[in-house]
């Protein structure tokens, strides 16, 4: 026998006839009552979104049932004179405006959850449930304020809602874990393949841009040049030393990371003027540090950027890779200000890292390093008995990146590298207050909390990547 959790959303019967009758009857009356017309239009739009839903249809069905249960709406519509009198009352008008606003929120919520794939819903499950409950409370308040009679009792509907939410999310988590495991297993198999899988691009397919600009060359040595691939794809061609083993290692990792849109796309290898080059997607705005050096980045945009970077770090962790050099200079920005994690020169795979591979990074990137990594690389106390580089190190660096973006400057910029080493390993951190617009209190408190959770001295006490993702998702 089929249980609630196993019900297929597609088998839920359509409510179209019932709503269709409601819309048709209402449309004949609302010509002279514009406020009612707006409500009817919003309800119709919500239903259309539900009908076209790709995902989470069963969850959305609970909302549809709520809307269809407004029995007295039709009664008021049938008694146009009485309702017109009600709309003359200022308090009733205000309540009706709130009702319209709530329906708009419901429409946005239904539109969002019906587009979320399993993995995204799985990650946002707590927030979805919280938002659903808050919206339904707001909806009930509107019904009470407007004296609308509900066909079903609120308490009973809440019980039904809770059953649907619990069953839907539990099933989704189960399904997602299965599909995610399969996806990650597939990607891990790709990571274990040889460098022979790296795509070779015919140089004849590469052309210079029709319009030349100074910004077409990047890098300290201008080793990155802009070209056009297949006549329309803008690409970045980066030369490298073929004898450098770290570059070869980077190639092995890059060749397998085309699964994530938050990571700069790697097309393969080619040749320009006799030099071997790596081919990446061209990011029009340059790196994130260059962007904040040139112009102010709003806090709403900052929240979206940080959230996307977090998704990239989550993806890397799921396929067993540490980036190992997280900072704004290694985040490339598209023309639409979409961040792309880049520069995998120091990246390591989890299994390689367990062998305590020595990663001799330059001391000038110590500003973003976790204290345990600093101790291992740059102090006399560093020894082989210390734990390998871990996800907690990535979290610490990510916290420093958030600080960097919050202040829009390099952390510890007024200190020398050796002073930073002493400062950080003794448990001291950068100043972390008053860096946000005081009018945006929510973002201020949220970023302050996230940064402090990310750079705690004891690695085990730092926020984990899933909790970090959840907190950031609430800000976008």
From TrEMBL:
Pfam families reported for this sequence: MLKL_N, PK_Tyr_Ser-Thr
Domain of life: Eukaryota
Molecular-function annotations in GO: ATP binding; protein kinase activity
Keywords: Kinase, Transferase
All copies of domain Protein kinase, residue ranges: 210-476
Keyword Cytoplasm carried by entry: no
One GO-annotated biological process of the protein: cell surface receptor signaling pathway
Protein name: Kinase-like protein
